[in-house]
Amino acid sequence: MAENSTALRNLHGIGLTMIDGSEASFGDFKGRTVLVVNVASRCGLTPQYESLEELYRKYRAQGFTILGVPCNQFKGQEPDSEEQIQEFCSVNYGVTFPLTRKAEVNGGGRHPLYAALTGFRTGELQEDITWNFEKFLVNAEGEVIGRFSPRTAPDAPEVIAAIEAELN
Fold first, then answer.
1. 89 in catalytic set
2. Which residue, of 17, 91, 96, 146, is most buried by count of CB atoms within 10 Å of its CB?
3. What is the pTM of this model?
4. pLDDT number for residue 4
């Protein structure tokens, strides 16, 4: 099971800049279950966008959302501008869930959202993000309740079970 850091805190106070440049905060998702995913357009795992969008459409009316966080820290697999990323996601995968501006998920420039998220650890997934498409499930109160490997598909039984358990 998860080995949660005692430093975990509520995420709702963390600021975000959305892909269109507008300012927001994680608090805008208060009351919703959120799957946060660091994404990239030129990765072998990029087809996960399709499953992510399907999850979003299936569960959004029940209080679920996905937050995509483009990141270029893994072999330069997200080199494009925010406008190009948004167009790629829309045209190729029909993405309608929210995306942020590109952000660092590891290292000294790690975005505060990822500084908080990575406090949630499992036996396999420790502090640093291992690759594109690592997933964190956050409950309606802004607490991290799950973490899934990049290779775990968004529609894998364990991800679906965790989402449904939180929504019910």
1. no
2. 146
3. 0.93
4. 45
